[in-house]
Structures are given as structure tokens and as C-alpha cells.
Amino acid sequence: MEATIQLDILRQDNSESNSYIESFLIEHRPNMNVISALMDIRQNPVNKDGNKTNQVTWDMGCLEEVCGACSMMINGKPGQACSTLIDRLEQPIQLQPMKTFPVVRDLMVDRSDMFDSMKRTKSWIPIDGTYDLGTGPRMAEPKRQSAYELSKCMTCGVCLEACPNVNDDSPFMGPFIFSQVELKIAHPTGEMNKVERLEEIMGVGGIEHCSNSQNCVESCPKGIPLTTSIALLNRKTTLQAFKNFFG
User: Fold this and answer.
1) Local structure of residue 226 (DSSP, 8 states)
2) In order of start, what are the domains of the chain with their CATH numbers?
3) Which of 229, 157, 154, 161 minimizes the C-alpha distance to 197?
4) What is the reported pTM?
5) How far apart (Å, rounded) are the C-alpha atoms in residues 45 and 7?
6) What are phi and psi of 157, to 5 degrees?
7) Per its UniProt record, what PANTHER family does this chain match (predicted)?
8) Are 205 and 171 in contact (CB under 8 A)?
9) List of residues 6+ apart from 163 with CB closer than 8 A
10) At a CB cut-off of 8 Å and minimum separation 6, what does 144 contact?
11) How far apart are CA 183 and CA 174, in angstroms?
């Protein structure tokens, strides 16, 4: 491995300004990830030409591939900066913000659209008033196992970045929301809002916009079976449409 690492970072001073590429050279250390490289630049924000510059802005939280905050384009592919090792990347390493979301500054993007989709589909389990009713219903083990896989979603946005149907010309909410809906429907308490959630994904930006490209399941850093959720919900929404039609 080379003793010096070059990072070419696509920078943007604010949401309205033009973007530009700025290159940095840092010293290589064993077992570095992209976040540690960015931290080195933060400590000494001097670009490749030796000029002092502004610190690079990015988002991060857990640093263990759980929060999804550090998603960015790494050598042209969406991924997590905390779990991407420098030694496995070709140089120069190119870092860019995900294009699906509005840029806040540099590598930081605004993922509000994802959380708005979760609000639309009520992707939570309503427990108000049930705490005093005793132990809740148990999930069957096979159902619990499949639900656990869906619960790994960290709303990182990688599946939206990889999906060809998520673009400025489409209202598609993106693949992640269908696993969120399937997870909540599978819950014994969450099932009581099943119809309401199905109706929402049958509407604008819902499941009919999916073209089954399967890019989402290929790119998901958690290996979530997103296309399985979409297939299950296709069947459930079809049945719900018949029920609506026949009253």
C-alpha cells in the first residue's frame, strides 16, 4: 500500500453554490477507513497544492454501520464511510455526496425525504394506551426471524441512490419504505394499521413506481431482502385493491 493517500473530494460550500473538486494528500496508516481519512483532513485542512482550506463537512454518528449517517459516493458507488477500508479502494479515492438528496455542504446531504416517507406510512408501532394491558402478543419464530432482517434498516439512503426510479422526475418514495411497511404490518400490534399503510403505498410515489431493477437489494449494506418485501406487498396491495373495489 502506498505511504500517501490521495482523496479527490467533490465540495460544495452551501446548498446553492457550485460544486468543485479539491484534492488532499494524507499519510497512510494500517486499517484506515474513509472516516479516519476525513478526520486527518479535518485536523490539517491543507489541500494537495499546500494551500490552507476550509474543513471538509460530512455527517456521521455511530461509526459502526448502524446509524446510516455517513453514506456517500465512494469511487462512484454509494456506501458507508465508516465501514469502507482505504486499503480496499483504488486511488485516487473519489468522494462525492449522494446525488439523490439535496446537498447541505460538501459530503453532507439532507435525507428528510426518507423520514417524510416514514411519516406518510406511519412506520412505527403505536403503543399509546397499551402499556397497562399486560404482556403483548408473541410473534411466531419464523415471522420474528424475517422481521429481524427487515429491522436492520438504518435509513442510510444507499438503496435510493442505487434505484433508477428515484429521480427528480418521479415521486417514488424508494425501496426502503416497503421493508419498513412490511416490518410494521408483521408486528402483532402494528397490524391494526395495516390497511392504512397499504393505502398509502398504493398512492402517489408508492409501489407501482417500482420497476424491479433489484439494484436496491444488491447495494444494501445490511443485505436486507428489499425485493422480497416489495413482492409481498405487491400481493397485499392487490388484495386490498379488490377489497376496495367490491366494498
Assistant:
1) H
2) 4-109 (3.10.20.30), 112-245 (1.10.1060.10)
3) 229
4) 0.90
5) 12
6) 90, 0
7) SUCCINATE DEHYDROGENASE [UBIQUINONE] IRON-SULFUR SUBUNIT, MITOCHONDRIAL, SUCCINATE DEHYDROGENASE IRON-SULFUR PROTEIN
8) yes
9) 172, 174, 175, 213, 215, 216
10) none
11) 16
Single-letter amino acid code for the residue at 164: P
Q: Grid coordinates representing 93? A: 479515492
Read off the pLDDT of residues 110-137 as tens digits, 9 standing for 90 and up: 999 999 999 999 999 887 665 666 777 7
C-alpha grid cell, residue 125 = 408501532
Q: What is the CA radius of gyration of the chain?
A: 21
Do 105 and 97 touch, CB atoms closer than 8 A? no
Q: Bridge-partner residues for 26, per DSSP?
A: 5
pLDDT digits (tens, 9 = 90+) for 135-166: 777 888 999 999 999 999 999 999 999 999 99
Whether residue 92 is preceded by a cis peptide bond, meaning omega within 30 degrees of 0, is yes
Amino acid occupying residue 123:
S
